[in-house]
Design a protein that fits this description.
Elements (H helix, E strand, L loop, with lengths): L1 H21 L8 E3 L2 H9 L2 H6 L3 E6 L6 E3 L1 H17 L6 E9 L10 E8 L6 H4 L23 H11 L3 E7 L3 E9 L7 H10 L15 H14 L12 E5 L3 H11 L4 E5 L2 H11 L3 E5 L7 H10 L8 E5 L4 H9 L4 E4 L4 H28 L9 H16 L7 H8 L3 H12 L3 H18 L5 H7 L5 H12 L3 H6 L1
Parallel strand pairs: 2-4, 8-9, 8-10, 10-11, 11-12
Antiparallel strand pairs: 1-3, 4-5, 5-7, 6-7
């Protein structure tokens, strides 16, 4: 059912894009772009699918490609659609190849040269009669079969429109029983641009992060509904690195890592691990804010990574997304059984990944508010229903025993909890939005509030009873925390 819904969403989104094209409302966000990382990354995102079907997937390009004026999000859509089509018609044991070449300024249509992107497969091929209609909207070759991508007759039509919007060309060569080659040519230089387009592209160069893709994968409604929240709360691309969330990427394919890095580097600090063992070690050592892990990796796979991290107190709270080409219900259930927070299929759309990460961070903020209320208002009555809540319950048990000792410090609390100071700090910050030292002080102050309300002793006596060395410092901390003085509570 989920696969059918995903296909329907892709179809709706592509129809909306075609409608925008018809109405002249689909605009290119042009910028001077070097496409090697994007093209290589999109191709690599199909590698798990290729492995699962024993299809040889190759990417060939010269070491450095020239920059060209394009909309990277739409170029990505173009390549995803071409690769999806190639895989749809490829048999197990076949091959799919992406070749990127630079054409010299010899063709009349491309006076400054062109970037030539071809996608070839060894699939069924189509007849010349079918080939004449292949870019027509809603046309499907007669032998098109249901597959992972399904057949809609929309993808190639949209691809052609996007290519031509760039001033490029697209052709398809095919022979029955031998396979097909789709070839896209995008113009180099700037002669094909209007002065207004060129000026807009120049102005846009300061925005160095990849734009949100409005192509397949999410409905128009989701994109528009999330855009306001995302822009309002996401960390700016020019924000200092220290305030950006720390994200761990666990992926054995270097090209996919580079691709995801290009999508997320503006909004996140990134740690990368080439295998599951390294990923688990880094996650528990650094206590990151988010984790993205591939499923199919040598050594321990993504399911085992998820299981280990979710069962360990140090890392159980970290939101984790599993990336995989396995779209079966069994595969998704396997990930969810290991407590993965989200399960995202490859190839994914950058906007979908960004929104998933954003939503996980928002969910973490809501959880922080919940834990803060439970810990501050009723520090000894926290219900235990997860590894994180069991951790907080144990932490507060330690504080119940030691909070009266003035000398009880973060270092001693860390030792009691079996963590380093930095691990404890990041864990508590993630769960409650408080540092370890602030958490200890909040606990002591709440205990003081309980004692004052019960008229248990004088203010000075209570200050010493909860671990403060100075009644005057206790009063200042109490006023800052509760907005009222200890004497006001005592006299109430």
């Amino acid at each position: 059912m989920k696969e059918s819904a995903a296909r329907l969403l892709r179809l709706i989104n592509q129809i909306l894009d075609l409608s925008k094209l018809d109405a002249g409302q689909l605009r290119l966000s042009l910028r001077l772009t070097e496409l090697q990382t994007l093209l290589k990354g999109v191709t690599a995102s199909f590698s798990s699918l290729a492995d699962s079907r024993a299809i040889a997937l190759r990417f060939t390009a010269q070491e450095r490609l020239p920059a060209l004026y394009c909309d990277p999000a739409h170029v990505e859509t173009i390549l995803i659609n071409l690769l999806s089509n190639a895989f749809k018609f490829s048999q197990e044991g076949g091959s799919v190849e992406v070749r990127v070449a630079v054409l010299p300024p010899a063709l009349p249509a491309f006076p400054e040269g062109a970037l030539d992107i071809s996608v070839s497969d060894e699939g069924e091929g189509i007849t010349q009669e079918q080939l004449a209609h292949i870019f027509d909207r809603f046309y499907q070759a007669g032998h098109a079969r249901e597959s992972l991508w399904g057949g809609t007759g929309i993808g190639l039509a949209l691809t052609k429109e996007l290519v031509e919007l760039h001033g490029g060309s697209i052709t398809l060569e095919s022979r029955v029983g031998e396979g097909s080659t789709a070839r896209v040519r995008l113009p180099l230089g700037s002669r094909h641009l209007s002065p207004a387009q060129l000026q807009a592209a120049t102005d846009r160069q300061g925005d160095w992060s990849l734009p949100l893709t409005a192509a397949a994968g999410l409905t128009e409604t989701l994109a528009e509904a999330s855009a306001t929240d995302l822009n309002a709360t996401a960390v700016s691309a020019v924000a200092p690195a220290a305030v950006r969330p720390l994200l761990l990427l666990i992926e054995d394919n270097a090209d996919v890592r580079a691709y995801i890095r290009s999508i997320l580097a503006a909004d996140y600090r990134l740690l990368e691990a080439p295998d599951g063992e390294t990923g688990v070690r880094l996650a528990q050592q650094e206590i990151t804010d988010l984790i993205i892990s591939d499923v199919m990796m040598p050594g321990i796979d993504g399911y085992e990574v998820c299981r280990r991290l979710k069962q360990d107190e140090r890392s159980s709270h970290i939101p984790l997304i599993l990336l995989t080409a396995k779209a079966s219900v069994h595969s998704r259930l396997q990930g969810l059984e290991q407590q993965a927070d989200l399960y995202l299929s490859k190839p994914f759309v950058p906007q979908e990944l960004r929104l998933c990460l954003h939503n996980l961070l928002q969910a973490r903020l809501r959880l922080q508010e919940r834990y803060q209320k439970q810990v501050v208002l009723k520090p000894s009555e926290l219900a235990v229903s997860s590894v994180d809540e069991a951790f907080l319950k144990r932490l507060m048990g330690v504080l119940e025993i030691h909070h009266a000792r003035e000398s009880f410090s973060v270092e001693q609390l860390s030792l009691e909890m079996g963590m380093s100071r930095s691990q404890l700090h990041r864990k508590l910050e993630a769960l409650t939005n408080e540092s370890a030292s602030h958490f200890i002080r909040s606990f002591r102050l709440q205990r003081a509030m309980d004692l004052l309300q019960k008229k248990h002793a004088s203010i000075s006596e209570i200050a010493y009873m909860v671990g403060f060395s100075s009644p005057s410092y206790f009063t200042r901390c109490f006023l800052k925390h509760f907005g009222t003085t200890p004497s006001a509570v005592l006299e109430a």
